[in-house]
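ok so I'm stuck.
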Amino acid sequence: MQKTTLLLTVLLLAACAAPSLKDADRMRADGNHKAAAELYRELADMGNPGARMKLYNLYRETGTGFESDAKARAALETLANEHGIAEARYQLGRMLREERKLEAAEKHLEAAAEAGYQPATDYLEKDDGLLAREIRIARSSPDRQKQLGDELFEGRNNAPKDRELAAYWYRVAAERGHAGAQAMLGFVHFQGEGVEKDAETAYRWYRKAAMQGHVGAQANLGYLYGEGQGTERNLKKAYAWSTLAAENGSPQGRKNQRLYRDAMSNEERLESLDEIRRLEEVIHGD
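replied:
not stuck anymore, here's the structure
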């Protein structure tokens, strides 16, 4: 009986002396992040996935706990994919969505919500089906992709006003050759709407759209040539593109056509007529 009592006492003392998550949490709350990280890692290596989750969160908040972002990401993926930790699935889902890996993001976010993780449930409710719609649109036509960009840009048809996301969908459609999306991508880069303001990038996308006959892009391209924004100033090309836009009904094109015509010599005007004919041949395939 005495031996049994002694053994139980020893085991109890050992259990009391063993480090715990509460100990690590207390170190973290006290600002002793390095010691907290060491204890979280020790507990994680002993098979406690909750400790590894806390270690990951500590790294996100303080930069302590992992040697690099890549190692922290690997730990998060293990927690989500192998242990099924709802918080890890939620965080990984958010990251995957930012990386535009939409189907994988949806899988993790829905799994976290189904497991009862409230932040995941709140996130999906607030999203109001946009993620599922993006997945469908990614497989759809450039017209639909450009349309989604417009809705996100303006915040209509139950889409949130998100100009960064709008620019993403404009780019998807633009890279598939959609002239309207190319023109809008030029616009958002010129204005710095949802992307970094960049006149050279705006010029490249406006030119792609203009070469497909997009009237608004032709007018804006004429302006860029006339003002020397995103490309070298060239009044002959400014007048040529403005004239093409004006002939297709653009008020901005007509205004700029008069402006640049008055700024040129007679010789430059004649040369610009040759440029207009050349562009018409290229655009219309004559």
